[in-house]
Give the backbone structure.
Amino acid sequence: MTTRWLLLLSLALALPAPAQTLEKIRKAGTITLGYVDNAAPFSYADANKEPRGYSVDLCRAVAEGVAGQLQRPSLKTRWVKLTVQNRIDAVRKGQVDVECSTTTWTLARQRLVDFSLVTFVDGGSILTKAADDNLRRVSDFRGRRIAVIRGTTTEKALREALSGAMVQAETVPIATRDEGLQLLREGKVDGFASDRTTLIGVVQRRAAGDAFRLLESDFSIEQYALMLPRNDADFRLAVNRALARLYRTGEIDEIYERWMGALGPPSLLLSATYFIQRLAE
């Protein structure tokens, strides 16, 4: 390496590192949180356009934890509505500090963004009309049409499940859960694939008077986590500290009951997830 290149490298190393997320938040006096609408009971906008839901409440707790760590009790919270399609880029580009919805933690995604502790464990399922009594398993969808949100882990898992069952079915890419429910209601598809809990949520909110059914068993496991910027260990620690406190103190039980109590108690797997993430300070 020449003397010139050594000098340039030394100058580059001497430059201050870009402001990390905690410092950016401290200077701005605001933490920016992203959420995906129409993903009840995890995230949605209420009648007043205010974000609500299980994941939203977790992010509110994270914002409080960050405010405490920065000793900024007046820290403001700014919410940004995202879509399933742009949520990863929003975190990558710094448009939001945390994404709060139903994002599944995968190794492929971790090449682009980072993740918090696991916040929920769900499974992929298919919603059908109750009248279609013969559609109870993935293997029953031979020659059928199934709507699924494009670009999601569910889309990939559904294709793998169909292939594994040696079932030829047409997958119909859609953009939102409301669109999937509407196609199913109109008979334009035979099933609508998504995460089990969000399928229950969209039916509860949008399908009054209709009767639907879910598969007898899930075709995938979905581990949700909050999306964070990559290469920022201090911010990830601050987020995880807030989540671990919720799990350790049992406050997570109140949040679960508020948004999913009507579905019954947490599954054994979810309860175990909360338990093993009660990290000590």
In short: The first helix runs from residue 3 to 14. The chain has two domains: 20-121+222-276, 123-221. The radius of gyration is 21 Å. The chain has ten helices and eleven strands.
